UniProtKB/TrEMBL annotation:
Identification of the protein by name: Galactokinase
Cross-referenced Pfam families: GalKase_gal_bdg, GHMP_kinases_C, GHMP_kinases_N
Taxonomic source organism: Bisgaardia hudsonensis
Gene Ontology terms for molecular function: ATP binding; galactokinase activity; magnesium ion binding
E.C. designation(s): 2.7.1.6
HAMAP family to which the protein is assigned, alphabetical: Galactokinase
Active site, UniProt feature: 174
SUPFAM superfamilies noted in UniProt: GHMP Kinase, C-terminal domain, Ribosomal protein S5 domain 2-like
UniProt-listed GO biological process terms: galactose metabolic process
Record flagged with keyword Kinase: yes
Site (Transition state stabilizer): 28
């Protein structure tokens, strides 16, 4: 059953009435442009056909009574009082945080509701289950009280909730693509101006995702550390963010930075070259040049492995296997925050079975972990359903 159907059905069971408001927001996979979003740079994700559904209905008070059906847990809080963190249950932070920060821009928002959440984005896999929850909650609130906030604003509220309520200093990519995704398109996002350039997924090309099942949950520390290193590098170059450093400028001062802090220099090299790769990927897609796109994906992976140091051996192995089959007909790389999670591969449809096969024959044997393999569709962002 789809999460949309499940949410509706479980709402009936838990609250003994029919839901009157149903929303759905997707997870995402990033094709290229990793750890560039919080450097004001460029990313190119697509929303996927896995997401989070919410079904609910108004109450006649200011209480939010929320049932997370996958976790079988309730949370309850009042919109008429200050919304605080519930440190025992992390998932509640995504809900409470979004409602709290929506109230910052819409202080009159006090309308209570009963709601049920149901999702099918694999958890801790780097496919943005949390962003899809945040965006779904934001959309639910917008619709519930007819609030004058756009989908882009909902995304930014979601990011704020994650930064200030959950404590991960993530950028804005995941929430933006969950809010703005376009069916059958990859979306290049300029994470500074928030301009977007949609490009169709090339004809006959499959977007594959392979979950390594190396959990990436406990690495918020590593993530925040990378972010700090990027900030140090930006300071070194005297700019607001690494987005403002060209490859030429970087090369001119690279040795100076290495002498100061070698790790910081490597982090900067990744971000600066990755931004360039995203821009080139847009060109490659425009020209239908899947070989060039694949090459850029490969370089992105190497850069994440060697310079940003966020891959793990199991992920490197999955990428190698996929690349072996795909050759120059597409590409493969790690996707998402890093330290486990998933790889993404783009290849002609007639290569899908061979990619699936080489991985299923080798990955578990080599690593002791069994992968999950998905062929996904680039999907629409958040919707009322
Ligand atoms: C996580 C964060 C995003 C982004 C990616 C890396 O998914 O939530 O903001 O930084 O990692 O590209």
């Amino acid at each position: 059953m789809s999460p949309q159907e499940l949410a509706k059905q479980i709402f009936k069971e838990k609250f003994n009435r029919t839901s009157t408001l149903n929303v759905y927001a997707p997870g995402r996979v990033n094709i290229i442009g990793e750890h560039t979003d919080y450097n004001d740079g460029f990313v190119m994700p697509c929303a996927i056909n896995y997401g989070t559904a919410i079904s609910g209905a108004k109450r006649d008070d200011s209480i939010f009574k929320v049932y997370a059906s996958d976790l079988k847990q309730f949370d309850e809080f009042s919109l008429a009082e200050e919304i605080t963190v519930n440190p025992k249950e992390k998932w509640t932070g995504y809900v409470r945080g979004v409602v709290k920060f929506i109230q910052e821009s819409c202080p009159d928002f006090k309308q209570g509701a009963d709601l049920v959440i149901s999702g099918n984005v694999p958890l801790s896999a780097g496919l943005s289950s949390s962003a899809s929850l945040e965006v779904a909650i934001g959309k639910f609130c917008q619709q519930l009280a007819n609030l004058p906030i756009s989908n882009t604003e909902i995304a930014l509220v979601g990011q704020k909730a994650e930064n200030q309520f959950v404590g991960c200093q993530c950028g804005n990519m995941d929430q933006l693509i969950s809010a703005l995704g376009q069916k059958d398109h990859l979306l290049m996002i300029d994470c500074r101006s928030l301009d977007t350039i949609p490009t169709p997924v090339p004809h006959n090309i499959a977007v594959m995702i392979v979950n390594s099942h190396v959990k990436h949950d406990l690495v918020a520390g590593e993530y925040n550390e990378r972010r700090q290193q990027c900030e140090i590098a930006a300071k070194f170059f005297g700019v607001k963010a690494l987005r403002d450093v060209s490859i030429e400028t970087f090369k001119q001062r690279e040795n100076e930075l290495i002498a100061l802090d070698e790790k910081v220099a490597k982090r900067a090299r990744h971000v600066i070259t990755e931004n360039q790769r995203v821009l080139e990927a847009v060109e490659a897609l425009k020209q239908g040049d899947i070989t060039r796109l694949g090459k850029l994906m490969g370089e992105s992976h190497d850069s994440m492995r060697d310079d940003f140091e966020i891959t793990v051996p199991q992920i490197d192995y999955l990428v190698e296997l996929a690349q072996l089959v795909i050759g120059n007909k597409g590409g493969a790389r790690m996707t998402g925050g890093g330290f486990g999670g998933c790889i993404v591969a783009l290849a002609p449809l007639d290569k899908v079975e061979a990619v699936r096969q080489i991985i299923s024959e080798n990955y578990e044997k080599q690593t002791g972990l069994k992968e999950d393999f998905y062929v996904c569709t680039a999907s629409q962002g958040v919707v009322v359903c």
